[in-house]
């Protein structure tokens, strides 16, 4: 880790980081192994990322594990991914709980087997009262699905006369999505070299900072995570304001806290 990265890690961390964990298949192919070998190797990077996020004080980490579109993959690969998901839930939950991690699965879980749905519920219940890092695993998640699902539920409330259309604000809408109560991601990292969002948190990423790296997911480590944080810390988030306005807000804030 470079000095700049070490320095960036001493600043107050982003509250919420989202990661598109991409590149498992290519990592395996580079080693003349089947794609699923990459998925299995990627589990260690997940463990590391969770540990690192907790250690630097990130409050929420949202990991994209399986998209609504990933069902289009060969049946065998989808099958292995489901088995892996089941195995991780079975084997890792106690350790996560011991580390005070609160686990939540976001996505349309209704398409998973009953057995997997039960495991998901048990894992969520077991970790529900933990007070450390919130770990969201996006599984059968699609940003468009999230927006549609939210819209349908709100429309039902309007139909039942419990909600006025004019009461649907950005805040109310956000609090009805999968990430209800969680601040929007400050930083989104994508490994694997592609520069796209692939239907991840399209509602929530309106003002998210993006960081793209060529590193393939199984090679993702503290140094790469640290570089992403350092890049984030060097950016000016303007949210529509001018740079001068942002500087003024920062200096007023520091005057108030003195
Ligand atoms: C990401 O790695 C994992 C999932 C989408 C489940 P990929 O499997 O997409 O790996 P590449 O992009 O083909 O290398
Ligand atoms: C995005 O990766 C989904 C996950 C990492 C779970 P993909 O590999 O599915 O994305 P595309 O298809 O290349 O856009
Ligand atoms: Mg991919």
Automatic annotation (TrEMBL):
InterPro entries: UPP_synth-like, UPP_synth-like_CS, UPP_synth-like_sf
Active site: 22, 70
Residues engaged in binding Mg(2+): 22, 209
Cofactor annotation comment: Binds 2 magnesium ions per subunit.
GO terms, biological process: cell wall organization; peptidoglycan biosynthetic process; polyprenol biosynthetic process; regulation of cell shape
EC number: 2.5.1.31
Purpose: Catalyzes the sequential condensation of isopentenyl diphosphate (IPP) with (2E,6E)-farnesyl diphosphate (E,E-FPP) to yield (2Z,6Z,10Z,14Z,18Z,22Z,26Z,30Z,34E,38E)-undecaprenyl diphosphate (di-trans,octa-cis-UPP). UPP is the precursor of glycosyl carrier lipid in the biosynthesis of bacterial cell wall polysaccharide components such as peptidoglycan and lipopolysaccharide.
Database matches in HAMAP family: ISPT
Protein name, entry field: Ditrans,polycis-undecaprenyl-diphosphate synthase ((2E,6E)-farnesyl-diphosphate specific)
Organism: Echinimonas agarilytica
């Amino acid at each position: 880790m470079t000095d700049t990265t070490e320095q960036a890690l001493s600043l107050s961390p982003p509250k919420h980081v989202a990661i598109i964990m991409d590149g498992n298949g290519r990592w395996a192919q580079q080693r003349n192994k089947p794609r699923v070998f990459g998925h299995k190797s990627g589990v260690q990077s997940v463990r590391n990322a969770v540990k690192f996020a907790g250690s630097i004080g990130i409050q929420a980490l949202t990991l994209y594990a399986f998209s609504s579109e990933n069902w289009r993959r060969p049946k065998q690969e989808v099958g292995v991914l489901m088995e892996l998901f089941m195995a991780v839930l079975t084997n890792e939950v106690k350790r996560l709980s011991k580390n005070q991690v609160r686990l939540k699965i976001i996505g349309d879980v209704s398409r998973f087997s009953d057995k997997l749905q039960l495991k998901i519920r048990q894992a969520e219940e077991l970790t529900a009262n933990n007070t450390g890092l919130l770990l969201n695993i996006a599984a059968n998640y699609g940003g468009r699905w999230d927006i549609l699902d939210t819209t349908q539920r709100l429309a039902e409330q309007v139909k039942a006369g419990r909600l006025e259309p004019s009461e649907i604000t950005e805040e109310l809408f956000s609090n009805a999505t999968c990430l209800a109560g969680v601040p929007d991601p400050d930083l989104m990292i994508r490994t694997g070299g592609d520069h796209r969002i692939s239907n991840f948190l399209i509602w929530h990423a309106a003002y998210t900072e993006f960081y793209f790296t060529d590193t393939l997911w199984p090679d993702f480590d503290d140094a790469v995570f640290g570089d992403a944080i350092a890049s984030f810390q060097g950016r000016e988030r303007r949210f529509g304001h001018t740079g001068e306005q942002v500087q003024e807000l920062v200096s007023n804030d520091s005057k108030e806290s003195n």
